[in-house]
């Protein structure tokens, strides 16, 4: 079962990196219009959308991706707690 935990946490980590890259692409003009930008938008926007509806931007700064990354961190911690609670690790 340890391999399942490792697999799930690795997936969350890869998705977190994809979010960070997608967020950083907003700093460069036309970066989101590239093929990679469109791919990351298709992957990241459905996850970011609920956070953007709940958390309004602060002026020109969108803080919803920070909340999204924190939730992913909590999910990883929750998986570790669940697996240790069930004595699967």
TrEMBL record:
Signal peptide: none annotated. GO terms for cellular component: membrane. Keywords: Membrane, Transmembrane, Transmembrane helix. The chain crosses the membrane at residues 6-28. InterPro entries: CCB3/YggT. The keyword tRNA processing does not apply. Belongs to the YggT family. This is YGGT family protein. It comes from Anoxybacteroides amylolyticum. The lineage of its organism: Bacteria, Bacillati, Bacillota, Bacilli, Bacillales.
């Amino acid at each position: 079962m340890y391999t399942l935990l490792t697999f799930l946490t690795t997936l969350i980590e890869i998705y977190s990196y994809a979010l960070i890259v997608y967020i950083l692409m907003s700093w460069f003009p036309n970066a989101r219009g590239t093929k990679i930008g469109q791919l990351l938008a298709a992957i990241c926007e459905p996850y970011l959308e609920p956070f953007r509806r709940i958390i309004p931007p602060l002026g020109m700064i969108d803080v919803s991706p920070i909340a999204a990354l924190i939730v992913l961190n909590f999910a990883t911690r929750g998986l570790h707690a669940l697996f240790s609670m069930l004595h699967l690790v």
